[in-house]
Amino acid sequence: MTVHDKHFSPLVVGLGGTTRATSTSERTLVKALEAAERAGARTRLFSGAFLARLPIYDPATAADSAELTELLEAVRIADGVLIATPGYHGSVSGLIKNALDGLEGLRADVRPYFEGRAVGCIVTADGWQACGTTLAALRTIVHALRGWPTPLGVTFNPSAGVLYDQDGGFSEERDARQIDMLAQQVVDFARMRAAVA
Q1: Which of 44, 7, 50, 8 is nearest to 29 (CA)?
Q2: What angle in degrees, to the nearest 10, is found between the helix axes of 94-102 and 66-77?
Q3: Which among 107, 130, 103, 132 is positioned nearest to 119, based on CA atoms?
Q4: What is the value of pTM for the model shown?
Q5: Less crowded by CB within 10 Å, the N or C end of the chain?
Q6: 12-68, pLDDT tens digit by residue?
C-alpha cells in the first residue's frame, strides 16, 4: 500500500464546536470533514452539542458516561483526527478541553491517546492574537496526547471579514484551500502510517 492507494479509506474523527450548533468553529469542522471525505476518508463528527453532554471529566466516574464511552471508542479506531475550537481568552474552550481530558480513558491502550495519528487543528477567534495563542495551546495539548499536529494549522478571525457566503461556502478561496490542505495532510499521514504498519 502506498500513500496514494485510494483503496484505503481512513477514518477521520472530528471533534469541536460550541453549544451553539451554528458556531463558526463547528461549521469549519464540518467543512474540514467534507474535505477529508473528498480525499477518500470516512468521517465521524462529535459536535459541540454532543461534547456538551460529556460530564466534567472525573477519573472516578468517567466509566459511567455513555457519551464518553462512545467518544473513546471512535478515537480508539480513528486513523486521523480533526479538532476545531473557538479561542476563549487566549486558549481552547472549556468544552473542547473537557473532551480532550476525557481521552485519558485511552491511556492504557496499545495505541494510547492520539499515538501514531495526525491531528489537524482549527481555531476560530475574534482577533489574530487569540488565534495564535489558541492554536499554540491546542498543538501543545495534541503533543501531550502523543499526536502529530499537521504541519498546517488553520486559524480564522471572523471579526476581520465575512467568513461564509450566502450559500454557506467560504467567502474567500484561500480559506477553502487551507481547509482542503489541512484535511489532505491528515488523510495522507493516515495512509503513510497504514503503508508501513
Answers
A1: 44
A2: 70
A3: 103
A4: 0.94
A5: C
A6: 999 999 998 889 999 999 999 999 999 999 999 999 999 999 999 998 887 889 999
Check residue 7 and give its pLDDT. Answer: 75
| CA nearest neighbour of 184 among 32, 17, 27, 29 | 32
Selection from 113, 99, 23, 105 nearest residue 54 by Cα: 99
Partner residues linked to 84 by β-bridges: 16, 122
As given in the structure block, the three cell numbers for residue 166 are 450566502
User: What is residue 2's predicted lDDT score, i.e. its pLDDT?
Assistant: 45
Burial class (CB in 10 A: 0-12, 13-18, 19+), 80: buried
Task: Give the chain's domains with CATH numbers.
Answer: 11-196 (3.40.50.360)
**Which regions of 2-161 does DSSP assign to beta strands (E)?**
11-16, 42-46, 80-88, 91-92, 118-124, 148-149, 154-156
Within 8 A by CB and 6+ apart from 49, the residues are: 17, 19, 21
Q: Among residues 126, 156, 158, 147, which one has the least CA distance to residue 193?
A: 147
Contact of 30 with 45, CB cutoff 8 Å: yes
Residues 114-157 have pLDDT tens digits of 999 999 999 999 999 999 999 999 999 999 999 999 999 999 99
